[in-house]
Amino acid sequence: MSGLYLHIPFCRRKCPYCDFYSRDDCLDQLADYHQLLIRQLQLATAAGWQGPFATVFFGGGTPSLLAPAQLGTILEAVAAGPGLAADAEISVEINPGTLTMNYLEDLRACGVNRLSIGVQSMNDRRLRQLRRLHDVVAVRKVVARARAAGFEQISCDLMFALPGQTPAELATDLERLLELRTEHVSIYGLSLEEGTPWGRDPRPALPEQETYAEMYEQIHHRLTAAGYGHYEISNFARAGAECRHNLGYWRRTACLGLGAGAHSFCSRAWGQRLAVPPDLDSYRSMLTAGIDPMRSLEKFDRRGAMAETAYLGLRTAVGVDVAAFQERFGCSFDTVFNAPLERLAGQLTACDGCRRFGWRQWLIYDRLIREFL
């Protein structure tokens, strides 16, 4: 079964480091955006996209700017159209600070069963630096309210390697985060992306590479000691609480993306990546005219599909399943990638029928993975 991603490109205020497509100047367009998503879903279904969907992920932007009734209407359209699996994982990204108990209860009642909370820091000074609209107290409140509303799967996003941040400061962040006792944690090192306020000169100074590595090691040891499995470069989970939607990305499972700026992956043949242009006005006008806004980005040949299978699989603790690779491509992983495997001798391990990197190799993943591309 496949996944469904819905991009909600609205924010109350853009963060200076964020390069995801979103706008903070047109919140009035939220009123009927869910209807545009449903219209695109209908066009995609007519074009051959099939369900039932095993996972649904509302990302952004700030999906929690939509009312639960709007999200529920979308889910009803999905269920009535391509379909939802009986045990579908349905995630919504939320920001702390403005969500009431009633909102969370209504969200749970409409079928959402997993929350991804944009915490980013457990330090009020850092939250102000990041231009976030919440504080640490708001984080604690929203987690408590989510539990009371019946959510049993909660994830928190945290950032590290912030300008001026020290390992000691990160240690405090981690302890405060662990007090929340969420099932899942995603932790990302800050990167300065072109086109963002922080990506333009003068850029803020980030910690040196040595400090970054120390912080990453610190995160790994503290979270695994607390009972989380380090199952992907930036992701940790209690047993059984891994994000099924993201696992689908790393396994090259089909995923339909709806919304301005959304990306899709079609798994037919050797695979194809598609995207909706990141332009809300164009998105609206095309759908109003009955035109499918999705455009092809890349069609894979067999070799490209094999390389991407390695690229994505080696991000995960499971790694690349060599038997599944053989079945999919009709050839041996070790034969296809004999040269890079020889050059990386000692960096990859063979265990349980898989080839994988250890977490220390993930620190230099971008350099190591180039051997496979």
Automatic annotation (TrEMBL):
Pfam (any one): Radical_SAM
Database matches in Gene3D superfamilies: Aldolase class I
GO molecular function per UniProt: 4 iron, 4 sulfur cluster binding; coproporphyrinogen oxidase activity; metal ion binding
Record's keyword annotation contains Iron: yes
Cofactor(s) for this UniProt protein: [4Fe-4S] cluster
Database matches in InterPro entries: Aldolase_TIM, Coproporphyrinogen-III_oxidase, Elp3/MiaA/NifB-like_rSAM, HemN_C, HemW-like, rSAM, rSAM_sf
Compartments (UniProt record): Cytoplasm
UniProt keyword terms in alphabetical order: 4Fe-4S, Chaperone, Cytoplasm, Heme, Iron, Iron-sulfur, Metal-binding, S-adenosyl-L-methionine
A GO CC term attached to the entry: cytoplasm
Domain Radical SAM core: residue ranges: 1-226
A GO biological-process term: porphyrin-containing compound biosynthetic process
Function noted in UniProt: Probably acts as a heme chaperone, transferring heme to an unknown acceptor. Binds one molecule of heme per monomer, possibly covalently. Binds 1 [4Fe-4S] cluster. The cluster is coordinated with 3 cysteines and an exchangeable S-adenosyl-L-methionine.
Alphabetical list of NCBIfam families matching this protein: hemN_rel
Family statement drawn from the similarity comment of this UniProt entry: Belongs to the anaerobic coproporphyrinogen-III oxidase family. HemW subfamily.
Protein name per Swiss-Prot or TrEMBL: Heme chaperone HemW
